[in-house]
Input
Amino acid sequence: MQTLNIIRPDDWHIHLRDNTALKLTVSLAERTFARVLAMPNLTPPLTTVQSILNYRQRILAIAKNDHFTPYFAVYFTNDLNAATLREAKLCPWILGVKLYPQGATTHSDWGIDDINKQFANLAVMEELALPLLIHGEVTTNTIDIFDREARFIDTVLTPLQQRFPKLPMVLEHITTAEAVEWVQSMPAHIAATITAHHLAFNRNHLLAGGIRPDYYCLPILKRQHHQQKLQQAVMTKNQSQFFLGTDSAPHVQDKKYSACGCAGCFTSPIAIPLLAELFAANDALPLLETFTSINGARFYQLPLNTERVQLTQSPWVVPEQYTTNDTTFIPLLAGQTLSWQCHFIEGLS
Ligand code: DOR
Ligand code: ZN
Output
């Protein structure tokens, strides 16, 4: 039986949600990950440092592992100002500002309608070296959903990077060959997160032989050649600009499995076993730790975790559902068997 011992992973892009869902999402995240970067698209959105500190307390009240550390990003709204940015920079738990183009995804209604009106804020962020975390898709209805990331890079991101060349940026949950190549052409203060599901799947998994809502997320799964390009990026040495952000995004069942189902794959409990299976199948297991546990910490200038986790090549049946109190979420690959499993911290369930 093959085993692999790696530095405990971090998840640099997760949706922990709030209220009744929080107990479940935090309990699952802390089993696997030492640190997470929790996204601010709550209702109402996390637009102030104080709202983030309050959210942090709600999370810490649930976490059982004293070492579990949640980090945050401020939601970039049209009302963002320099004072909030300066306060955010001084807060040790805030790693950046999250840009959602208005209408791009779940709870993005408070997002930016015109980035060209935000140059004053972006200049302050550049001065502070406060990272801009980007949901990189155009939202124009006439642009095909499969082209929205590539179009964003050409029409929004490249001009933005040229105007603010020193601004650290993370292009979140990238899905295309164009995004991989763009990041590779940039200096080290520009990086990208990649999800486990965009590495393991392509749009056939979502659409061929039946429509499978579990695989529906934004940015949407793309063609196989894009998936292969993402795999190549994380399974090649010295690709330090790419790191894991699961974008684990649970939705309650009646919202997820409906005629107009919500975008989001719930992958927090399966991401690491799924990645181990994928890296093993590609003879790339020695590079897994770099992607899950090293590159992200280096980008955010944080120390590497000292705890380690054990992965073993032994079958693991993904639970049909996860339930805590009155919240139930169905994970991606529910009921299916993965060939690797991750051994959790004792006492956390
Ligand atoms: O699929 C997604 N779900 N993509 C996002 O960008 C947001 C997320 C959510 O919050 O549900
Ligand atoms: Zn997300």
